[in-house]
């Protein structure tokens, strides 16, 4: 039987390794169905995530991590997020994300003119990643 606890632990992993690990009193993620807040002792859940920020509250502070999709598994007060890439707020290179955004926007325009649906879809996802990084870095 799981004990009631006032904290949960959050771990974010990518193919490059563990990007983030911390105890938390409240975790907020964005799923395909909208925002989901997770308090300690939440029921077990598995859900896929949008390219968006993950917010991890602990004490009076809140960490923000840009997460590139993936999924979240929560059970026994442990939240594990597995994503292709993820960056903590302080690790985001804003200039790099700005140039990725410009490249993606140019690629979207070209793909639209050429009616190239595959390139368009890839560029739209690249744009979402870049904008997410910029938003997380700046807020
Ligand atoms: P870029 O075109 O700038 O490479 P991308 O969206 O194609 O961006 P990804 O394939 O998602 O990049 O990520 C490749 C690696 O680079 C990952 O480890 C990711 O965390 C890191 N990364 C990508 N963009 C940034 C950034 N702006 N700041 C810090 N790390 C980044």
From TrEMBL:
Output a single Gene Ontology CC term carried by this record.
proton-transporting ATP synthase complex
Q: Which residues form the signal peptide?
A: none
This protein's UniProt keywords: ATP synthesis, Cell membrane, CF(1), Hydrogen ion transport, Ion transport, Membrane, Transport
Question: What is the recorded membrane topology of this protein?
Answer: Peripheral membrane protein
Localization (cell): Cell membrane
Picking any one GO molecular function of the record gives:
ATP binding
Sorted alphabetically, which InterPro entries does this protein's record hold? ATP_F1_dsu/esu_C_sf (IPR036794), ATP_synth_F1_dsu/esu (IPR001469), ATP_synth_F1_dsu/esu_N (IPR020546), ATP_synth_F1_esu_C (IPR020547), ATPsynth_dsu/esu_N (IPR036771)
UniProt keyword annotation of Chloroplast present = no
Q: Which domain of life is it from?
A: Bacteria
Q: Does the keyword Membrane apply?
A: yes
Q: Where do the ATP synthase F1 complex delta/epsilon subunit N-terminal domain residues begin and end?
A: 8-86
Give the matching CDD domains.
Answer: F1-ATPase_delta
Q: Which Pfam families match?
A: ATP-synt_DE, ATP-synt_DE_N
The UniProt record lists the ATP synthase epsilon subunit C-terminal domain at 90-138
Q: Check the record and name the NCBIfam families matching this protein.
A: ATP_synt_epsi (TIGR01216), PRK00571.1-3 (NF001846)
| The protein's role, per its UniProt record | Produces ATP from ADP in the presence of a proton gradient across the membrane.
| PANTHER family named in the record | ATP SYNTHASE DELTA/EPSILON CHAIN (PTHR13822), ATP SYNTHASE EPSILON CHAIN, CHLOROPLASTIC (PTHR13822:SF10)
Per UniProt, subunit arrangement is: F-type ATPases have 2 components, CF(1) - the catalytic core - and CF(0) - the membrane proton channel. CF(1) has five subunits: alpha(3), beta(3), gamma(1), delta(1), epsilon(1). CF(0) has three main subunits: a, b and c.
The family line of this record is: Belongs to the ATPase epsilon chain family.
The protein's name in its UniProt record: ATP synthase epsilon chain
Task: Please give the organism.
Answer: Levilactobacillus spicheri
